[in-house]
Design brief:
There is one protein chain. With 503 residues, this protein is α/β, with parallel strands linked by helices. Helices cover 45% and strands 20% of the residues. The N and C termini lie far apart (132 Å).
């Protein structure tokens, strides 16, 4: 009796868990009878006499005679989010289909599949990350290699003008011939200009990478740009026995609006490269102004640039000329020139043919500027100027420049002394360096303004980026002058505030 109880309990438990559904079919796959719950397996409304070919696809084409042994179909979804195991049997010309609930097994299988899918995705993503790391590693190695090469080349580039400057400085000390002194001084100035251009390129590249590179259009004279280029490069071309010329329009406006400093920097880069890489023939600069745009073409008869290398010449730290040409270069001039041209709303392009030469073209906006009354470029003679500068050599230079222009000069070395001297001597204009010991430039300017003194103040710094000038102007400065100081520029700025007269 107890055995029968146990068997009955076991069968009831199994039936409850498996929820079996038996369907008896005739040879035409019509339901003869069924036992169980059809709804559990998506066969809602099942009735005797129903044909099941349309509802159970696996029955199509299946005959009892084909089933010499039971067929167990793979685990399938039951249409309700669970799973079912299906057994198909044949007996005495009839077919029997047994459905067993396999939801737990189905969910377990789904979990396994989900884990497998996630693992596959994870593996794919890991491979992507590994590929990205490898690409980044290669890019870092390439960048390190390029910058290492850049440092080596830049060391050579900087030493060249420095060697010229120190060499000609030594000659100046040992000669008394007036013409030789003038020639040596001109050579020193050319070396200094070359050195300044190199440093400008380095600083501008750093500013560009930091997103701080700015251009400042202002009224300027194209004649000055033309004359500067001719003056700087004619001796360099002559040293290599190259023909050199700067051709220009005769009818361009007196004043046009462009960033003269940046345009000069670009043209110096282009002409400097042309002379460096041209061993025979000529270098010519053609300047044209048409309909509010300035076009500068720099042509040379150098080795040319191969077509496959032309796309790389505007990339930082790249040097592309003929394969045999190993002359050093920083690899920054063309890169920063292209960036500057774009920032000014223009473009820099090239045409080159190996063995024939290269032409670089700069095209930028340069709108004509209506001229008002022209301010005198000479300051009022005898005006009292205070120079606040802690570098003794720069202070001496400024004193010489200003006194030669007929101005009275008082030099102080720090910010606190500058404030005291302004109160005591009441200068008519103040030059204020920004990096001073103790009280710095902006602090001294602010202290002067807080005392109600409105004397014009021109801030100065060797750091010419926007942050320094902005700090000075916010403190109360009236103007900002970037070092190295150009004497003509300095006097012109003084004349804005202390004019001799107005034309």
């Amino acid at each position: 009796m107890s055995d029968e109880f146990i068997r009955n309990y076991q069968q009831a438990t199994i039936r409850a868990r498996l929820s079996p559904l038996w369907i008896r079919l005739d040879s035409g796959h019509q339901v003869v009878s069924f036992e169980g719950k059809p709804d559990v397996y998506g066969l809602k409304g099942l009735q005797v006499g129903d044909a099941l070919d349309d509802r159970l696809d696996f029955l199509v084409g299946l005959e009892p005679a084909m089933l010499d042994q039971p067929v167990i179909l793979p685990l399938i979804e039951d249409g309700k989010g669970g799973g079912a195991q299906i057994h198909v049997l044949a007996h005495r010309g009839e077919m029997f289909v047994l459905f067993l609930d396999a939801s737990e097994e189905f969910r377990a299988q789904q979990d396994v599949q989900q884990v497998a899918n996630e693992e596959q995705i994870r593996g794919y993503r890991q491979q992507q990350l590994l590929d990205e790391v490898e690409r980044a590693r290669r890019a870092a190695e390439e960048a390190s290699h390029l910058k290492g090469r850049f440092i080596a080349n830049m060391s050579h580039e900087l030493r060249t003008p420095l060697s010229s400057i120190t060499g000609y400085t030594h000659l100046l000390r040992t000669t008394t011939d007036a013409k030789s002194i003038a020639d040596h001084a001109n050579a020193i100035e050319r070396g200094a200009q070359h050195l300044l251009a190199l440093i400008d390129n380095i600083l501008d590249q750093a500013r560009f990478e930091a997103g701080q590179l700015e251009v400042r259009p202002a009224p300027a004279r194209l004649d000055n740009l033309r004359d500067d280029i001719a003056t700087v490069f004619r001796p360099l071309a002559a040293d290599k026995s190259l023909r050199f010329g700067v051709d220009s329009d005769s009818a361009w406006p007196e004043l046009t609006a462009f960033d003269a400093l940046r345009v000069r920097q670009i043209v110096i880069n282009l002409v400097g490269n042309a002379i460096k890489f041209t061993d025979q023939g000529e270098v010519r600069v053609q300047m044209q102004w048409r309909d509010g745009r300035l076009n500068v073409a720099v042509r040379d008869t150098g080795p040319g640039i191969p077509a496959e290398a032309q796309a790389r010449v505007f990339q930082a730290f790249q040097r592309e000329h003929t394969n045999a040409d190993q002359r050093a270069g920083a690899g920054l001039g063309l890169s920063i020139s292209a960036v500057l041209a774009e920032r000014m709303g223009g473009s820099l392009s090239l045409e080159s043919k190996p063995g024939v030469g290269t032409t670089f073209r700069l095209d930028i906006p340069a709108q004509e500027v209506e001229q008002g009354p022209v301010q005198a470029r000479v300051p009022r003679p005898g005006a009292r100027i205070q120079v606040t500068e802690d570098d003794a050599d720069i202070a001496m230079l400024m004193r010489i420049f200003l006194e030669d222009a007929g101005l009275q000069v008082d030099v102080v070395e720090n910010g606190a002394e500058a404030v005291e001297r302004v109160l005591a001597k009441a200068p008519e204009l103040i030059f204020m360096d920004q990096n001073l010991p103790g009280m710095n430039g902006p602090e001294a300017i602010k202290a002067i303004r807080e005392r109600g003194i409105s004397t014009p103040i021109i801030a100065m710094s060797a750091a010419s980026d926007g942050e320094y000038s902005q700090r000075a102007l916010e403190a109360g400065a009236d103007d900002f002058l970037a070092k190295p100081v150009d004497p003509d520029d300095m006097l012109t700025r003084i004349a804005r505030f202390l004019p001799e007269n107005t034309v």
